[in-house]
Specification:
Blueprint: H1 3-20, H2 28-40, H3 45-54, H4 57-74, H5 79-86, H6 95-110, H7 127-139, H8 151-161, E1 170-173, H9 180-191, E2 200-205, H10 208-220, E3 227-231, H11 240-267
Parallel strand pairs: 1-2, 2-3
Helix pairs in contact: 1-6, 1-7, 2-6, 2-10, 4-6, 5-10, 8-9
Length: 268
């Protein structure tokens, strides 16, 4: 089965479980559930799936929160972009929401989510982009759901448009969506024996949840720590790249100040 077919199968299972076990709620919750499981990367996938299945909804909620706490500490450069996907996890939920989240996680694992992130497949997987497209198609006008480009189309487009590149060069996408063209470009770079982490990745989108997906996907795809994302309409802001770099610098400076303050308090 092709990677995009596997992603579609898992996305459909997540969508069905999320809506079968409750009503209402934003797309960020089921997308965040899938992202959490994808980022954990267990060495023993069957054992991990059994471990999750045995958890209570409450225990799973707090384990997910702990996992994201560690990820955010490690990738403060992406906090601004990915927060729309995970901020709900740091609220205190009612029991029905915890149960709904757990049921969605169980469905994702049963559908083979972990198989998508085997070492040989993870650079080609765009489960979160496919899932967001499925969720949006169910509830929104089709024109607002076009954040996902099928991998084969993105691969062909990039192969025809990306010329010679060298380390340190910026890859810029003003309508990045969930990062389909970033993924395809990273794949092409690897085929040319170049490390995607040596590049600067600059993307923007008016859909903040799609942009959050790009932020998380950048970790799956090994794009490195030079990922600069801007939420807004690039047609209305000609200097959006400069604004994005300044915003990133501001977030990193704040994170550094917080860490310094924590060290001082630890000594008191």
């Amino acid at each position: 089965m092709r990677t995009d077919e596997m992603a579609t199968r898992v996305a459909d299972a997540v969508d069905e479980a999320w809506h079968r076990n409750g009503s209402g709620g934003g797309h960020e919750v089921p997308v965040g559930v899938a992202a959490t499981l994808s980022l954990l990367q267990p060495d023993d996938r069957p054992a991990f799936a059994n471990q999750v299945a045995a958890m209570t909804p409450r225990a799973y909620w707090y384990q997910s929160r702990a996992a994201w706490t560690e990820i955010v500490r490690a990738r403060t450069d992406l906090v601004d972009a990915i927060s729309p996907m995970i901020s709900w996890l740091f609220d205190e939920p009612d029991e029905p929401l915890r149960e709904r989240v757990k049921a969605t996680a169980d469905a994702a694992l049963a559908a083979g989510l972990l198989d998508l992130y085997k070492p040989e497949l993870r650079h080609d997987a765009d489960l979160l982009g496919r899932l967001l497209a499925v969720l949006k198609t169910r509830t929104e006008a089709k024109v607002n759901a076009q954040v996902y480009t099928p991998p084969d189309i993105a691969d062909v487009f990039v192969s025809l448009t990306v010329d010679a590149v060298k380390p340190g060069q910026a890859i810029c996408e003003p309508t990045v969506g969930t990062g389909s063209f970033f993924r395809a470009t990273a794949k092409l770079l690897r085929q040319r024996s170049l490390d995607p982490a040596s590049m600067i990745w600059v993307g923007a989108d008016i859909d903040e949840l799609a942009l959050a997906v790009t932020g998380v996907n950048s970790m799956f795809w090994g794009l490195g720590h030079q990922v600069i994302l801007y939420h807004g309409d690039t047609l209305a802001r000609a200097d959006w790249v400069e604004v994005a770099f300044k915003r990133r610098h501001h977030v990193l400076r704040l994170a550094s100040e917080v860490r310094a303050a924590r060290r001082i308090f630890d000594l008191m």
